[in-house]
Design brief:
alpha+beta; 10% strand; globular; Glutathione S-transferase omega; glutathione dehydrogenase (ascorbate) activity; Glutathione_S-Trfase; 163 residues
């Protein structure tokens, strides 16, 4: 899990070399909430990985070869395969690596978990990806859940446990 405290690579930085066998590389930005999802999955599943932090305000040119939008998270395998977009990276890691599955096997339950993710993505971030939860506070999160009784039950534990 090297690289968590490494400097961020920016314009003019050389691209990292090949990904070592048995490791997956995460192109990241320390404070990006979308990358945090992927980091959580990597840790929850105990996946060996390395982190390459990217300066998103001064991006290296080669990052666009990894993701045409130049955004993180991006996963890179030792075979050179590239996977990007936060929900997609998380789903890939859960499906491609052994161990406890993080998503339910039941199609409805899995779809419901994805709906929860969509709802909370809207609560936590605006269209520019700026985290709003700290500005909104828990009180507004509870208000949001009151507007969605089913979500309230799932998330706040009313009726059945949150999975």
């Amino acid at each position: 899990m090297a690289g968590d405290h490494s400097r961020s690579l920016g314009k003019g930085s050389a691209a990292p070399g090949p990904v070592p066998e048995g490791v997956i590389r995460l192109y990241s930005m320390r404070f990006c909430p979308f990358v945090q999802r992927t980091r959580l999955v990597l840790r929850a599943k105990g996946i060996r990985h390395e982190v390459v932090n990217i300066n998103l305000k001064n991006k290296p040119d080669w990052i666009f070869e990894k993701n045409p939008d130049g955004l993180v998270p991006i996963l890179e395998t030792s075979k050179g395969q590239l996977i990007y977009e936060s929900p997609i990276t998380c789903e890939y890691l859960d499906e491609a690596f052994p161990g406890r599955k993080l998503m339910p096997s039941d199609p409805y339950e899995r779809a419901f978990q994805k709906m929860l993710l969509e709802h909370f993505s809207k609560v936590l971030c605006d269209q520019d990806g700026i985290v709003l939860l700290n500005l909104l506070g828990l009180q507004n999160l509870q208000l949001y859940c009151q507007c969605f009784p089913r979500l309230r039950g799932e998330v706040l534990g009313v009726g059945k446990p949150f999975k």
